[in-house]
């Protein structure tokens, strides 16, 4: 077992945490929709990375390694929480939606809470694909590597997830009786306290 | 297959709405945590939920003042290093009777003549008049939520009882100090997977500042 033992190594690790915490937290938050779950997953990720820090720090892309660990933690957690949910591995069939309708449904979203609710209908793997591919802006090949699947699977999952998201957003909008302003007022706690911006590094 | 237009809209909706939705508090907490595996270990992460319902039963070590400061093992991965010159005394001892029950460990600094870091001076000052002591209790693990961010350190609850609570930094940890029978400090320790455990520390013969110093030192090793 390797530990973060000496002061120099520890300083490097702390710098790594400072550099990557925001991006990892963002990915976790988008995937779980829950700040505390995301915080716990990132914490677990850093603990695991710290254990292997002597090896991780010499990798070409330590933040990529941490991202992979995080996704593993999140997907493992999701599996544990909902083993009975078939959606994890085999999402329900998605209705066909014309591209122009899907694009319009996405274009009309201007509120994170609305996006968060839309994402909540997706399976964890679908969320992971969308977050990694379109929020972190990773190439399909890298997403495939992180998720341990083929590029074709990433592409098809992204397509299905996007359609499902667009449908959920459109349905949510038509169901919504309360005015948008009231929805905004009930947005996520801490949303006004937002010093961090950026994507996965 | 998704069209380029739809793909661009997905990118755009993330950029528009999700780029700045990270609660700053959570980010700050992540930066301030210590991920040193000897303190926050896999064992604690896995065992946290199992031990959630019970306080940790730590064997009491009773003895006269020892030269080497005893370390108290609070859980698999948390050790509390007592100040130099301390000795462990029986929980509920009359030497520390102001401490609310049920303390698991008590140490007393009275009679300490050993030189030490600056906090020892404060302890000795307090000890010279009344004998400073603290009791420690590690609470069960819990998951903070937005509605209930902590288990026992709700400021509104404490304010209701006029105990003048205040958020404080205790080394690398967050805590709340208030005044009960004496100064009492709750420190939030990470237990993995978003779970936390509170270390409840009550002081006798110590000021609030002295109690914070003792606990910050105790958790720093």
Question: What does the model show?
Answer:
- The complex is a heterodimer of chains A (201) and B (221).
- Chain A is built from ten helices and no strands.
- The model of chain A is unreliable at 1-5, 84-91 and 177-201 (pLDDT under 50).
- Chain A has 201 residues and is mostly helical.
- Chain B has 221 residues and is an alpha+beta fold.
- In chain B, the strands form two sheets. Chain B has a seven-stranded antiparallel beta sheet. A two-stranded antiparallel sheet of chain B has the order 1-2.
- Classes of the chains: A mainly alpha (201), B alpha+beta (221).
Provide tags for this entry.
heterodimer; A: 201 residues; mainly alpha; 10 helices; elongated; disordered N terminus; B: 221 residues; alpha+beta; 7-stranded antiparallel beta sheet; 9 strands; 26% helix; 26% strand
Main pleated sheet of chain A:
none
Gap between N and C termini of chain A, in Å? 27 Å
Strand order of the largest sheet of chain B: 3-4-5-9-8-7-6
Record field, number of beta strands of chain B: 9
Decide which structural class fits the backbone of chain A.
Answer: mainly alpha
Strand tally of chain A, please?
0
User: What Rg of chain B, in angstroms, do the CA atoms define?
Assistant: 21 Å
Biggest pleated-sheet summary of chain B: 7 strands, antiparallel
Share of helix of chain B, binned: 25-40%
What fraction, in percent, of the residue positions of chain A are helical? 55-70%
Mean pLDDT of chain B: 61
- The number of distinct helices of chain B, counting runs of at least 4 residues, comes to 6
How much strand of chain A? under 5%
Largest interface: A-B, 64 and 45 residues
